[in-house]
Write a structure and sequence with these properties.
Helix content: under 10%
Number of strands: 30
Largest sheet: 6 strands, mixed
Bound molecules: copper (II) ion
Shape: globular
Structural class: mainly beta
Distance between the termini: 43 Å
Number of helices: 6
Strand content: 35-45%
Radius of gyration: 21 Å
Length: 456
């Protein structure tokens, strides 16, 4: 297998913006800032006005941060918004003080103030960063970006592209973001779903590719609540990582892929289409397939057919938890519309502005859901006793689903649990600190679906 310096290749490929942000990352100057500010973006089709967004460095999505594995990321977060904010580095097994959860790991940064984020990146892979103060609103308004941690030796691909899938809830006349973030219907049902779906801040994002080109595609679901069901057309590919963590072997993409809010899928794909078009398509509510990302074929890559890709090198600390020694925990997910929660209990919940509970509690309590000893194996049963799917995200540590016959699923940081489903996850509590466990349907998190655990 031929290898190459990934960042150099990206520069040579003319990936202008990402190359620049990569250099900024590599400079590792404490003076490098990341600013949350108002900006305008052409999200909606031509003919519509620009949309006012809140964006990191004024870009939608925010600047793509690329850092070598094992390096530090240093960014002074400058808040130029009118509201307090903070940044969560999603999926990073991070120093707890840098996790960005306002009210748990730091105070929200007031308008006009700043906060120095400075942390090690132990794992290669596709991660992302987003606001974690009133995140339902702040992420919906645009505060998210990709955080890519580069392997020391990148896989043999021609290009490396980040695809941030998102949806926006816009006024169909003015193309401005719907400012109602407290709609009971949204909070108690499936969450805030947009009416304009797109990729990388555009409704019709497309890439020009060559036939037989091999691409690494990093899919990131940055939406508030949308579960994307995707398929490849004119592309043949393999999944090589989930939520940043490499799979032990590349998995051929044989059928539809499901990517829940906050989840990532790393693909290596070959452009195999005979015609001029290939695409990642999305299954719509109308049961039709729609283009999510177009791949417009112009020209031919020098190499035609290649061998299947190799597995990505494993990250550190991917050991399987010892189930026999593990502490068993259970978390019931209850509430929401059409659920089985008793009327009286639901009424009390709603008086506090909530619709959902985790293990009987709405929002963060004084005491954690669990106190864990550092290094302890844990198994946690998630019982979704609601009428809706949820994307449960654990901060600070990745987990594996426990499958029948004590087999394990891949390491992930976010698991999709369907209505009525019971799943068990297991992990080694090896990152000290206070860690959030919450639904990444951000309206659900805003309406009670947050808990925390402590590892000490
Ligand atoms: Cu949820």
């Amino acid at each position: 297998m031929q290898t190459f310096k990934p960042n150099r290749r990206a520069v040579l490929a003319g990936a202008g913006a990402s190359a620049l942000t990569w250099r900024a990352g590599f400079a590792q100057s404490a003076a490098v800032v990341l600013t949350a500010q108002r900006a305008n973006a052409q999200i909606a089709p031509e003919g519509y006005p620009q949309t006012e967004v809140w964006a990191y460095d004024g870009a939608l999505p925010g600047p793509q941060l690329r850092v070598p594995q094992g390096a530090r990321l240093r960014r002074r977060f400058v808040n130029k918004l009118d509201v307090a904010s903070s940044i969560h580095w999603h999926g990073i097994r991070i120093d707890n003080a840098m996790d960005g959860v306002a009210g748990l790991t730091q105070d929200a940064v007031p308008p006009g103030n700043s906060f120095a984020y400075d942390f090690m990146l132990p794992d290669a892979g596709s991660y992302w960063y987003h606001a974690h103060t009133n995140s339902m609103e702040q992420v919906a308004r645009g505060l998210s970006g990709a955080l890519i941690v580069e392997e020391p030796e990148a896989p043999d691909v021609d290009r490396d592209e980040v695809l941030m899938l998102d949806d926006w809830l816009l006024d169909p006349e003015t193309a401005q973001i719907d400012p109602d973030f407290s709609q009971p219907m949204t909070l108690s049902h499936g969450g805030r779903l947009g009416n304009l779906i797109g990729t990388n801040g555009r409704f019709n994002y497309a890439l020009a590719v060559k036939r037989h080109e091999r691409l690494r595609l990093r899919l990131i679901n940055a939406s508030n609540a949308r579960i994307f069901v995707l398929r490849l057309v004119g592309l043949s590919g393999w999944q090589v990582a989930l939520d940043g963590m490499p799979l032990p072997a590349p998995q051929p993409v044989a059928q539809e892929m499901v990517i829940a809010p906050a989840q990532r899928i790393d693909l290596i794909v070959d452009v195999t289409a005979e015609g001029a078009q290939s695409a990642i398509e999305r299954l719509g509510n109308d049961d039709q397939w729609h283009t999510q990302v177009g791949f417009e074929i112009a020209g031919q890559a020098s190499r035609a057919r290649r061998d299947p890709p190799s597995a990505l090198p494993p990250n550190p600390r991917m050991d399987l938890p010892d189930l026999a020694q593990a502490r068993s925990l259970e978390m019931k997910i209850e509430g929401g519309a059409m659920g089985r929660m008793a009327m009286g209990q639901m009424r009390t919940l709603m008086q506090g502005g909530n619709f959902w509970t985790l293990a009987g509690q709405a929002g963060l309590g004084e005491a954690p859901f669990a106190r864990l000893s550092r290094g302890e194996p844990v198994r946690l049963r998630l019982l979704n006793d609601t009428a809706f799917p949820h994307a449960m995200h654990l901060h600070g540590m990745h987990f594996r689903e426990v499958l029948p016959q004590s087999k394990f699923g891949p390491m992930r940081d976010t698991i999709l649990t369907m209505a009525g489903q019971s799943q068990e996850i297991a992990f080694i509590a090896d990152t000290p600190g206070k860690w959030l466990l919450h639904c990444h349907m951000l309206a659900h998190a805003a309406a009670g679906m947050t808990a925390w655990i402590e590892v000490a």
